[in-house]
Amino acid sequence: MFDGFTPFDIATETPHGGATIHGRVGGPEGAPGVLLLHGYPQTHVLWHHVAPRLAERYRVVCADLRGYGRSSKPPTDAEHAPYSKREMAL
Fold this sequence. Notes:
This protein has about 90 residues and is of the alpha+beta class. It has helices at about 50-55, 85-90, and strands spanning about 5-10, 20-25, 35, 60-65.
């Protein structure tokens, strides 16, 4: 699964606290990029059939959103601000 892809962990910092985002990247360096994001309740592994085919022509990044898979799960607050779409997009 994900042959030729390299796993990564990137530390992020946002107004409501940071998170470490886990994922995999593959495909030719310098090629146009494609970011594959999963829905609820999946993880980046959802893309294991599609990503290798896309990586033949594109630089493909598959990431786990914060709180999913191997990405960190920061504590929340009463308004769930650390898990808002705005926060996760930063």
